[in-house]
TrEMBL record:
Belongs to the bacterial solute-binding protein 1 family. This is ABC transporter substrate-binding protein. Keywords: Signal, Transport. Residues 1-21 form the signal peptide. PANTHER family: ABC TRANSPORTER PERIPLASMIC-BINDING PROTEIN YCJN-RELATED, ARABINOSE-BINDING PROTEIN-RELATED. It comes from the Bacteria. Residues 27-52 are annotated as: Disordered. The keyword Transport applies.
Length: 442
């Protein structure tokens, strides 16, 4: 199988130190014990003295793995004066997004640190929800070159860094090693193997994917589209989704979704439904993100421990393609504890935090060096495979724009109509083209 070679982005001008010293300190009392200047690190900056206990609130989506708890435990041990309280947001990234928008647009101080989907930083930076991180990065000499360039770029907007890469996601293919001899290399092979193998070892389904009308549908669709050589937007952000390649890809998706080897209610499937059915041993194949490997081998929850492997997604005419996902860490612009918030962001996005997430949660690190670590390589053969690092770095991004929520809504609606049979693949492609062009032109 061939993979696109990854083109290294030369990010030459990334570390212009932007010190916004002493702005915004109108009337605020800020006590600092370490002799550092007061900086504009939040509207109500309040720095803790060495001994003072500070509790920061960390909001993140549902984590079904032990990773988040383990990272927080390690952080609190290393920082006895900072306590991290978790706030759980919905598993559906779109719902989380809307809750954050409500919270941050009212300048609420209740959340200090939060996980952001890779598709949010541009929008959140533009809306002034986030604290800009360059001065912290500069102060602590964080080596941004140690991260995969694409993940750093996802946290940048207007030349500044608003989010730190925490882990990266790329769509991967799961198969049952107790049923499958050789995983399918193409979508057509998947279709025939899924038909043939479903029912073995007590399975009910051949394949599971995410076909509900929500953000995950876009990532699944992008994988089909790119695997047939189509694109949603081109390198210059022109909408190019209405192409024969895209039409063919949507038709293949319709074929899979309409088959009798997926659950009848596949159009309600998100990651959680996929995960639950998968770890109950109900399917031969599944598409999900790397974390499912951790759940698959969780002795307490899974009935298929040690019977699962990850592989590249099946290929279309053009090859195999994974959608780029992943999560960043950001600080609420109005956090009352920006310094402590940064300490946590630094830890969770740094080598120690990312290693814990990889080992405890099978989250793919964004720091290239961690893939050399034997404990990380032990998580799955894919993490040990240098080709997978290329897949991660050449994963296909969703359009990068502050109006991404609008773009996503258009795609969700048109793709869903194609999957429910309300419109043809060709109409879906044409409608996406027209509506996205109009939205981008505004
Ligand atoms: C995963 C990805 C994220 C994506 C979401 C879609 O959480 O990391 O980028 O938006 O799935 O459901």
């Amino acid at each position: 199988m061939k993979f696109k070679r990854y083109v290294i982005w030369s990010l030459l001008v990334i570390s212009l130190a932007v010190f916004l010293a002493a702005c915004n300190s109108e009337g605020e009392e800020t006590s600092s014990t370490d002799g550092e200047e007061n900086t504009d690190s939040g509207e109500n900056a309040e720095e803790a003295t060495e001994d003072e206990q500070v509790t920061i609130v960390y909001a993140r989506g549902v984590d079904t793995t032990p990773a988040t708890d383990a990272v927080i435990k390690a952080f609190e041990e290393a920082h006895p004066n900072i306590k991290v309280e978790q706030r759980e947001m919905p598993a559906d990234t779109g719902q989380s997004h809307d809750q954050y928008v409500t919270t941050f647009s009212s300048q609420s101080t209740e959340i200090d640190v939060f996980n952001a989907d890779v598709i949010w930083p541009a929008e959140f930076a533009q809306a002034n929800y986030a604290l800009e991180l360059d001065r912290f990065i500069e102060k602590d000499g964080i080596d941004m070159d140690s991260y995969f360039p694409g993940t750093v770029a996802a946290g940048k907007f207007n030349g500044r860094q608003w989010a730190m890469p925490q882990f990266t996601d790329a769509g991967v293919f799961y198969y049952r090693t107790d049923i499958v001899e050789e995983p399918p290399k193409t979508w057509d092979e998947l279709i025939s193997q899924a038909q043939e193998l479903q029912g073995q070892e007590g399975t009910e389904f051949g394949y599971l994917m995410q076909a509900a009308q929500y953000e995950g549908l876009i990532t699944n669709a992008i994988e089909y589209i790119a695997s047939y050589g189509g694109q949603v937007v081109d390198e210059s952000n022109n909408v190019v989704v209405d192409s024969p390649e895209t039409v063919k890809a949507i038709e293949k998706m319709q074929e899979v979704v309409g088959s009798d080897f997926v659950p009848d209610n596949i159009l309600n499937f998100m990651e959680t439904e996929t995960e639950n059915a998968w770890i109950e041993g109900k399917a031969v194949f599944a598409r999900n993100w790397p974390y499912l490997m951790s759940s698959s081998n969780d002795e307490e929850r899974s009935s298929i421990v040690d019977n699962v492997e990850m592989a590249m997604l099946p290929a279309g005419d053009e090859g195999s393609a994974s959608a780029l996902g992943g999560w960043m860490t950001m600080i609420n612009r109005y956090s009352e504890h920006p310094e402590e918030a940064w300490e946590f962001v630094k830890f969770i996005s740094g080598p120690e935090g990312q290693k814990i997430s990889a080992v405890e949660g099978a989250r793919a690190p964004t720091i290239a060096e961690l893939y050399e670590d034997p404990e990380v390589q032990d998580v799955s053969s894919l993490f040990a495979n240098p080709e997978f690092r290329e897949v991660l770095q050449s994963a296909v991004p969703r359009p990068v724009t502050p109006i991404y929520p609008e773009i996503s809504d258009i795609m969700q609606i048109e793709l869903s109509k194609a999957l429910t049979g309300e419109q043809s693949a060709a109409d879906a492609a044409a409608n996406m083209q027209e509506k996205m062009e109009a939205a981008m032109a505004e």
